């Protein structure tokens, strides 16, 4: 069964996705070239409106601090300067916070994808006692606001001695019930013939999971990983609660302490924001196609 069958199924899925995308485009926009031109113009206008604050922040970060506080012109009249970036990089632990955020985001992403994929496979392709109850509990966890769990999670980390540690930041974030159901829905669509053929060849559940299900699910796994990474990188509330030592602070938490310590410094704040957004911009540029596919496939555009 093998690799040829898996590759054939993957090609068929890709062809079906392309055909569905073309049909959806014709259905929503219409076959007329004028309709497509109008839709493109509307998208350009919306994108420009969305990019306007980002452009303002980027320009402000290159202004002198005295000019940045004035409601004057867009472009700097006193000249462009890297003063804000020099002060931010020299007067704070910004690079340390960026490294901490990278470590936390990578660990959270790897563990979340692995745990969610195993749970989704169990719900989708195995039968065990209490399966329906576990699915209902997972669904209930999706509907429960995360803020409710902050106090018990903090007490748990405190008892385990994980306050001000990377483990304390990472472990509560690896449970993602919504990712479990997204992956389960994808696993449900895997042809049973492939799994049955694997079982006939003597493959157990673990071998089916690692050699058949995961290779066929590469696209959805990448999409889930990207969204989890972005969420972990931007997460502020839990790292803010569990860390007080600057050595373990992530970037969003560290930037909030800089604002409190140095007051309102508009150019430096914008420079910090630009530096903080740079890794996510790189991720988007590298995985733009995967992110768009993930939004279309998982419906996670609001994340």
The general outline is flat
Taking all residues together, what is the mean pLDDT?
80
**In angstroms, what separates the terminal alpha carbons?**
38 Å
The total of beta strands comes to 0
Alpha plus pi helix count: 16
Secondary-structure-derived class: mainly alpha
pLDDT below 50 for ≥5 consecutive residues: which ranges?
A: none
Query: Which value, in Å, is the CA radius of gyration?
Result: 24 Å
Task: Please indicate the percent range of residues in DSSP E strands (runs of 2 or more).
Answer: under 5%
Helix percent reads over 70%
The helix-strand sequence is HHHHHHHHHHHHHHHH
Biggest beta sheet summary? none
Structure description:
- By secondary structure, the chain is mainly alpha-helical.
- Helices cover 76% and strands 0% of the residues.
- The chain has 16 helices and no strands.
- The longest helix is centred in the middle third of the chain and has 32 residues.
- The radius of gyration is 24 Å and the shape is flat.
- The two termini are 38 Å apart.
Give a brief description.
This protein has 303 residues and is an all-alpha fold. The protein has helices spanning 3-29, 33-61, 65-68, 83-91, 94-125, 131-143, 150-159, 166-170, 177-188, 192-200, 205-216, 218-234, 237-242, 251-262, 266-286, 288-298.
State the main characteristics.
single chain; 303 residues; mainly alpha; flat
Which helices and strands occur, and which strands form pairs?
Layout: H1 3-29, H2 33-61, H3 65-68, H4 83-91, H5 94-125, H6 131-143, H7 150-159, H8 166-170, H9 177-188, H10 192-200, H11 205-216, H12 218-234, H13 237-242, H14 251-262, H15 266-286, H16 288-298
Helix pairs in contact: 2-15, 4-15, 5-9, 5-12, 5-14, 6-9, 10-11, 12-16, 14-15
